[in-house]
Amino acid sequence: MRDLANALGIEAASIYSHIKSKEEILQRVCFKMAQEFFEAIDAAEATERSATDRLKRAIAAHVQVLTQNTEAAAVFLHEWRHLSEPMHSTYLSLRDKYEARFREIIRSGISNGEFTVPDEKFAALTILSGLNWTHTWYKPNGKMTPAEIADNLTEMLLNGLSTKKQALQDTYSHLNTP
Amino acid sequence: MRDLANALGIEAASIYSHIKSKEEILQRVCFKMAQEFFEAIDAAEATERSATDRLKRAIAAHVQVLTQNTEAAAVFLHEWRHLSEPMHSTYLSLRDKYEARFREIIRSGISNGEFTVPDEKFAALTILSGLNWTHTWYKPNGKMTPAEIADNLTEMLLNGLSTKKQALQDTYSHLNTP
DNA sequence: CCTACCGATCGGTAGG
DNA sequence: CCTACCGATCGGTAGG
């Protein structure tokens, strides 16, 4: 709190005329970020499209929020542990609701044949963890824009590393020789 | 330190007859884990095989170390930030060496056509971040063993979610009709 | 490994 | 928003 006061150019005690406690700052950051993530995915899912397309847009929306303010993102992703009850439980249930949005996209992609995946819960977790690492290395002046990062992430998570197209084209290539 | 002493059944001051400082504990955990990760990947890469196979084994080895002791893994992944110099720099260079092992596998897979990926550095980062999330939810008595987790992770990261085989088989299926 | 401490720092309050 | 302060807790030491 002394550091914060210093950065603001006021005395430490004066902070408490603006907020009730140190934890209030944590709460505000965590729930403001949660709100931003929900607004972003709402916009991403607004139009009716294929699961692949909805997932692409959800990934781009998530990366956009993450990179907008990497410090707030770090608080949202790590410091929520220090929330006291009942905020702690509220946070957890919001996070699960958000993850469920990704699970739902994956589930619909499985049922219509767009996706093949062993476990939708596991898949959602792996996707989100891949996205969430971004905040640790993203630099606003780096060579990749948030949109480019999202494109690369989408490419990796949807298609994987394996050159499957190539392998399958090889498999079928004898059929194509004139 | 008081909590630690309590758990050990001794007085707080007595801890200091075993260690020099609180930070020494952090150092020991961080560098012991680093050593374990290197030993695991050394074993995984010992035999000459395809890049796909080496990556599979490296993933399994990494997940094995992560799940062996999730609390130490959490310290290794997050608390290293509090290391003071020169340990902080040493840690960072070890981590980069480790990541380079994954980049090297990916690079060799690209050059022999096993992998197709836009950026090997980006790919290595995304793989590792997908793996490193495991420590937050893994439970020794859960339904997935470390080996099963590794298999699922490998499947997702190598092949992605998209049902590409199916899509390509559809593309070529007219060629197969008798 | 313990008793007896210490200086520094922490989040926060009273009263203006 | 400030001055003046407080009780609690922190990592750690001296000396046995």
Short overview:
The structure is a homodimer of 178-residue chains. With 178 residues, chain A is mostly helical.
Write up this protein.
2 copies of one chain form a homodimer. The first copy, chain A, is mainly alpha-helical and 178 residues long. Chain A has a single domain (23-163), classed as Tetracycline Repressor, domain 2, CATH 1.10.357.10. Helix content of chain A is 71%, strand content 0%. Chain A has helices at 2-8, 22-45, 51-68, 70-78, 87-111, 120-132, 134-137, 146-159, 164-176. In chain A, helix 3 (51-68) packs across helix 8 (146-159). The first copy, chain A, is elongated. The model of chain A is unreliable at 166-178 (pLDDT under 50). At the A-B interface, helix 6, helix 8 and helix 9 of A face helix 6, helix 8 and helix 9 of B. The structure holds a DNA duplex (16 and 16 nucleotides).
Per-chain topology:
The structure is a homodimer of 178-residue chains.
Chain A: H1 2-8, H2 22-45, H3 51-68, H4 70-78, H5 87-111, H6 120-132, H7 134-137, H8 146-159, H9 164-176
Chain A binds a DNA duplex (16 and 16 nucleotides) through loops.
Features:
Tetracycline Repressor, domain 2, 9 helices, 71% helix, disordered C terminus, DNA-binding
Seen as an oligomer or otherwise, the chain set is: homodimer
- At CATH level 2, the architecture of chain A is Orthogonal Bundle
Question: CA-to-CA gap between the ends of chain A?
Answer: 75 Å
CATH superfamily of chain A: Tetracycline Repressor, domain 2
